[in-house]
Amino acid sequence: MTSIDALMRSVPVIPVLVIDDVAQARPIAEALVKGGLTALEVTLRTPAALDVIREMTRVEGAVVGAGTVLNPRDLDSALAAGAEFIVSPGLTEPLTDAAKANRVPYLPGVATAADIMRGLDHGLDRFKFFPAEAAGGIKALRAHAAVFGQVRFCPTGGITELSAPDWLGIPSVLCVGGSWVVKPGTPDPATIEQAARAAAGLRKAAQG
Ligand code: 3PG
């Protein structure tokens, strides 16, 4: 199992996936991996999500995680389905304790200095900055980064193909998350692969 830091450095973009139909799981994962995006966040927002995780873990080269993990019960279900990392929109004590107890790579969401400080108290220094655009955008993240020099971020929420390069230009940003790579509806694998290839080609300025 890889660390959350290594996972964040493995790709510039983590696609955030909301998938209703388990039949779409494999073609979507295969297209993303073929395009160069190997870390896949399957959000637990649809009844099919756990089955989607199970299917996607069978795709060679895919590192499949669960997103929208809200509590220890979600975390247990996601791990049972084969999730290799856990993403949450926020940072709570019960979820953080459960993630630590399971030693699973864990990316909790933070939006404020107090959130980051609670994470640091738990020994964490890798966070999802969420909701990135609504919580103040690049200006807010730069302000947090100036205060918390050791912290690295994966901004997510409102980021687009067009704005992603600006976010990735911030040294404390290791990757970004976004749903733009796989648009809702009936996805065409060739379109997904093309979007993944463009996203995988984005350059990172992150250091340290
Ligand atoms: C998430 O779950 O991280 C966000 O819903 C993704 O945000 P986006 O849809 O604006 O990319």
Automatic annotation (TrEMBL):
<dbReference type="InterPro" id="IPR031338">
    <property type="entry name" value="KDPG/KHG_AS_2"/>
</dbReference>
<dbReference type="InterPro" id="IPR000887">
    <property type="entry name" value="Aldlse_KDPG_KHG"/>
</dbReference>
<comment type="subunit">
    <text>Homotrimer.</text>
</comment>
<dbReference type="Pfam" id="PF01081">
    <property type="entry name" value="Aldolase"/>
</dbReference>
<comment type="similarity">
    <text>Belongs to the KHG/KDPG aldolase family.</text>
</comment>
<dbReference type="InterPro" id="IPR031337">
    <property type="entry name" value="KDPG/KHG_AS_1"/>
</dbReference>
<comment type="pathway">
    <text>Carbohydrate acid metabolism; 2-dehydro-3-deoxy-D-gluconate degradation; D-glyceraldehyde 3-phosphate and pyruvate from 2-dehydro-3-deoxy-D-gluconate: step 2/2.</text>
</comment>
<keyword id="KW-0704">Schiff base</keyword>
<dbReference type="GO" id="GO:0008675">
    <property type="term" value="F:2-dehydro-3-deoxy-phosphogluconate aldolase activity"/>
</dbReference>
<dbReference type="InterPro" id="IPR013785">
    <property type="entry name" value="Aldolase_TIM"/>
</dbReference>
<protein>
    <recommendedName>
        <fullName>2-dehydro-3-deoxy-phosphogluconate aldolase</fullName>
        <ecNumber>4.1.2.14</ecNumber>
    </recommendedName>
</protein>
<keyword id="KW-0456">Lyase</keyword>
<keyword id="KW-0119">Carbohydrate metabolism</keyword>
